[in-house]
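Following up on my earlier thread - several people asked me to post the actual chain instead of describing it. Fair enough. Here it is, all 264 residues.
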Amino acid sequence: MSAPDLFVVCKNCQAEVSPYITECPYCGQRLRKRAPKIERPDAPSKPPKRAPRGRTRVRRADKPPKAPRLGRLRTGEIPGIRGDEHGKPWATIVLLALSLGLWLALAFVTLKAVAIGALDIEPWFYLTASLVNDGTAAQFATAVGLGLFGWLIERRNGPIVVVLLFLLCGPGALAIAVALDPGTLVFGTHGAALGFLCAWLVPVALARHKGRLDDDADLLGVLVIAAVLLLIPAISQGHVLSGVIGGALGALAGLLLAVLKPAR
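Reply from S.P.:
Thanks for posting it. Predicted structure:
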């Protein structure tokens, strides 16, 4: 029986190390999968294992550790790069810019010129009426609701959902309000802002109820914003019904989003 080597040389740092270790203590290089077995002089020798017929067993060198792999890609991502969930919400920014731009452009125009009082009007009137508000306070409050909850929805569901949700809870809510109460002039962004709030709140509330979400979102502050948006018609010439309908449509959309992509 041949005596074991007193040391081996690490291929990475060329240091002399013990032959009974698996990793180099100087550089951490992997030397072998497992430490060599120490033969005892009184132990009976075992016959070498024979490979099955027709097969040649080839010993492979130690494989390098596999590189970590990313999970499944999200919408808008490319291989090797994770999307930034805190990126710019372009759809929400465009909606806020349109609302502020129209409000400034129509500052010297009476709101009756853009308000909706009947269903048989041009389609673009619905979009215009859902972007303007009466007074600075109403414009600021709806901009906060639209921007905050639009950004949260866009971060989780993407810009297309934000645009569709605005069309549903803004122009759509105004059209339903006119159909239910014909002859009344309706306008304002509070319906779209309430729709965004409810569409974000419903999946979060359901996820918390089922124990899937543990975040620090202040739901009491969300309810305060909702109360302010509901009171906007009291301080301006908006219509209460359009805000309630916008919030209800947003809640239904939130239930759909909770099924398609639950909050985590």
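Residues 76 and 169 are 26 Å apart (CA to CA). That should answer part of your original question.
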